[in-house]
């Protein structure tokens, strides 16, 4: 019934054959394939949908709320200038989402990537294909980070488009006064997004590490989000003093420095350094643990 | 055995590295070396001067430092700095100046006969100290420093006493008359604050109220009568007179400027409307002309407030003295000119960040001029009666925050309409950094009866929208113009600033009639101002802005993190190299030797000392009850788990996680594993792509035919039934036609026809020279499709060999018959040579063989015309299996 049985080829019996013809460890699980594997997942599409929808939700909120001149307690935030221009709207969208909303896609993409394969049992077939373990993690991490970055770029990009249609193309009006020309403002928002991504590397590292430790995708994602919240709580404890500088959460809003009249790098550089440090160690832990782990899922 | 650190050890090590730096600093600052302090009241020229003498632990003679305090303060204000200098190896003497703190006497504004003389006496006192280093007898190695009032005494001490070896005056005056009466305009607000600061009831007068000299008005407080009357006279008239100017000039460092020849670090504030950058510029020019080494440091703050950068400045002063008092030529005293520039606000702590701009020479206040044309007609504006309401620029006491804000694009400044003229430049095409004093020629006409005018000139930085305007450092330049009834050309010298005008911003010259901080005529008049030339703006291109200093950990921590990560990964590497391939086994699909595995936390071995071999072309059944270790063995075979001991070789290659030889193995173990959101075809396609092998090697069509999924192939796998998944998984295992196919319970979930098909597939697959390993507990299936068996129980090998060898034992065979036979025939069979017995049973004849083999028996039976339909082992595999594992055979 099966032609494969009619065309048998006996394996060579002479010299030891190390692998099947055409197999090269370095070519296994190419990034494009891993990206395709993740692309059609419902969570990817839902996350993208939320990020695309948020600017519209904000737009409607501002349209319903109208001008809000009264009772802002003297504190000026980006909220007050949200409707000044497309750039302002994009910056405001970033402002409302950077604290938590953007943590979720990172935790999701990085935390789910290995654990979900384990829960589907597809992990063992990949490893037996064989995709070398470090290669598997490298591909998965790269794709997860790329998806995270895409999520972060998507939100301000949609907001910029939506805001430009709604409020026009204009300079970024700063809440403290002054304005940044529109072209420059896009660059500034780009810097802010880049920093938000860098500052989320620690969440990515945590989620990825947990992902290699557990077969429950939700455990990895929830663990990473939970620990991020713990970081925020600790940062609120002013008694910790200078020690807070070593908390990644301490720097999470340093990207606002990119949206002031004079671009200030200090906080962003420090935040990136902290985030990168934690991320490096966590990524290394993930690779180390996974390399020797018994895969029993 | 390989070395295996517990995981927590690695984590702890990394955390320790991260936390380490903080711990070191904490330890370092925990226990500063002790500083000895001795307080003494010294009787100097009719006043008791309260002093404190600080020495550190160092042995031997050391240079001394005289440390003065600011106006209105006392020696207590500088105690922290004194202690630090003492720790740095200096003998430090602080004192409360006459009229301040616990010292008695009257304030003479650094009178050469009193305050300066006191300082000379203090140097005499230092010269007598055994621990103070002497240049020669009576001449100690001494430096003088201090801020504001204490800065002036530094300059004056150096001017009046040749024994002073180095000075570091901060935010102070060169010419007090110029500071309080700039361009003959009375700086009334600052002068008032200055005067009242000296008027506070101090400790001395409070302790001994009767001591206040008789005949003085209470308003004079501790000022000398001479100064008191000067202030009152000028404050009432609102106009400085020549006598007042002469008196203040005589007491200023400028009076002895030509005699100050010692190395000087001049620290001046940018947010300082009291002692402006022009004052330190005059110091720098004079001292440089005298041949003294000079460094100029413009700090961000000043008397108007802002960041005084105390820590950095004190460190620099210490370094300065290390160079010029300790004569340590190895220290770097820093750049000749340094400007603190405000960056943005650091949002995490709300602090404005400062960056240094440095140059190896001090360019003065009028370097590299750029002319910027100003537009605007001649404008006439009013000097309001009573000089009110005044325009607002710097506000002493309040100004701190305000002056600081101006660099951030926000500022509080106010010009009243009709009371100023303004002239705008074109927007800047590119950023312009002003460093120094802009100047502009104007023509001023006044309707005042004496033809005079008091004007306040300022340059705003106006944003692109034309409304947002910022007054750099909140500074204005007052000027008094006389004889301007018919118009007079006046060159306005604007305040010295360091300010960046961004591209798109424009400069705006405003000339106002009033300013809150200054006295201006109260008689109403009209002034007309026209610009006669461009605004000449100094730039200092040699000033390089340095990157803001970042703490060590900004670079250090990621590097440590990288090192930690590398350490984690390197220690995870196996020490032992992969075993070399064994050419002798190149044609042996599987050789397992001494394999043992015990799961972590498990109480017994899942696999123990397992050894067997599979030859090419075999269909091997791996048989055992649940928990026998079949699946564990297959996991090890796939490189998913690591054996504790033993070795697995596939085609001679040792199996490790991800061993390339696994590409010759197809597997289906413990159920299917697919991405549920993709359909069957996509799953197979992406799986094959993940192996990285050429698409034409996949033989997808053949595999799909086995799966036999039909249209379901294009449905998401999550909608599949168990059997469909199973078949898809088998197809996946056969992708690429692997030389060794491992199937774990392959018939679970298949219906009987599919099971039969499956069986045929396996047999024919192996017939092609490939090898199949099937694990199962479905004994009948194994019996029917396998050529060889490995029976396992409790992790151990029970028996291995050809199926017949295990099942039949060559012993008793059941001959099934097509029709009934007579007893005689049965007896004939029993009488055949090599046959022990033959008895009739339900289904046929049971033959126990003695020496005959089954094939020969069949020949004999046919020869006897026995209507046989089949010959099979009587002991079914099930019985054999149960016997072998010792269960239920009793």
TrEMBL record, chain A:
Keywords: Membrane, Transmembrane, Transmembrane helix. The chain crosses the membrane at residues 45-66, 86-110, 143-169, 189-211, 218-241, 273-291. It holds the Pfam family ABC2_membrane_4. This is ABC transporter permease.
Automatic annotation (TrEMBL), chain B:
It comes from Streptomyces flavochromogenes. Residues 1-28 form the signal peptide. Pfam families: ABC_tran, Peptidase_S15, PepX_C. Belongs to the ABC transporter superfamily. The lineage of its organism: Bacteria, Bacillati, Actinomycetota, Actinomycetes, Kitasatosporales. SMART domains: AAA, PepX_C. This is Alpha/beta fold hydrolase. InterPro entries: AAA+_ATPase, AB_hydrolase_fold, ABC_transporter-like_ATP-bd, ABC_transporter-like_CS, Galactose-bd-like_sf, P-loop_NTPase, Xaa-Pro-like_dom, Xaa-Pro_dipept_C. Keywords: ATP-binding, Hydrolase, Nucleotide-binding, Signal, Transport. One of its GO terms (molecular function) is hydrolase activity.
